[in-house]
Amino acid sequence: MDIIFTMKNRYHMARLLVGFIAAFNAPSSALAAVSYLVDDGTITHSVGVGAPGGDLIALNRFTTQVGGEDITNIQINWTGIANGTNATLVIYDDPNDDGNPNDLVLLNQVNVTTSGGGGFNNSFTDHLFPNTSVTGEFYVGALVSGMAATDFPFGYDATNPDFPGVSFFFENTTAGDLDVSNPNGTSTLSGFSENFITSGNFMIRATGIEGALLPEPSSALLLLLSGIFWIGSRRRHFDFGK
After folding, report:
1. pLDDT for the residue numbered 23
2. For 102, which of 58, 111, 170, 191 is 20 to 30 Å away at the CA?
3. Judging by beta carbons within 10 Å of its beta carbon (0-12, 13-18, 19+), is residue 49 exposed, middle or buried?
């Protein structure tokens, strides 16, 4: 039996392979997402420095879940601060996974402006974040710098259940002195939130998708299309016997 790669054969093969590539490299929006959160969506307090010109980093610790190894979004309940205030979203790694943020390593940061807040409310602002791979224990949060004494930007949930040893903060009462790349070395006060506020957690969440395990779509597509054109350039006959 002879199998001949005619133009029609090659056309259908190309359609099948391109369809395979499109499905194999589905966009991140089509992948199942993992939600990281420790609040139930009920705000009970708003948290700030309480001093003019202060800086504050608020963080929640999470454990990496299967299928959520790449963080793509951070959601924050902004409250008690004017919309349009500058903030910096951050993700840190806990290098020894001991839950102690005294050795945090900054993985990524992005500058944003606050929105959806300006009052005591339960709403979250969903911020896009550059895909950032996490493993083990990691921290997600934000820095607000140069706040007024009346600014309390971070929503806080003190309703049950609460998770001690998870929400952490760094502050500096001098504007601009708290460095996101070295929060331990530039803070004047830090600690777990339950030791300074009340039992509860910051209303800071994250969304993760499955880590990138596949080649870039363009590379894979070029590789397979090269094979298609190579086959197409040679009108071969394969004899499998009669």
Report:
1. 45
2. 111
3. buried
Distances from the Cα of 237 to the Cα of 6, 17, 137, angstroms: 10, 21, 57
Q: What is the pLDDT of residues 139-159, one digit of tens each?
A: 999 999 999 999 999 999 999
- Tens digits of per-residue pLDDT, 210-230? 986 444 455 555 555 455 444
- Which residue type, as a one-letter code, is found at position 18? V
154 contacts 112 by C-beta, under 8 angstroms:
no
Q: Which long-range contacts (CB under 8 A, 24 or more apart) does 159-164 make?
A: 159/40, 159/42, 159/44, 159/200, 161/40, 162/38, 162/194, 162/199, 162/200, 162/201, 163/38, 163/201, 164/192, 164/194, 164/199
Q: What's the angle, vertex CA 141, arms to CA 139 and CA 147, rounded to 5? A: 145
Q: Which among 124, 26, 107 is positioned nearest to 69, based on CA atoms?
A: 107
Which single residue is written with the structure tokens 């903030």? Answer: 87
Question: Does residue 123 have a pLDDT over 80?
Answer: yes
Cβ burial 193-216 (10 Å sphere, 16+ → b, else e): bbeebeebbbbbbbbbbbbeeeee
- DSSP per residue, 159-217: SSS--TTTEEEEEESSTT---TT-HHHH-SEEEEGGGTS-S-EE-EEEEEE----S--H
Does the pLDDT at position 7 exceed 90?
no
Peptide bond into 164 cis (omega under 30): no
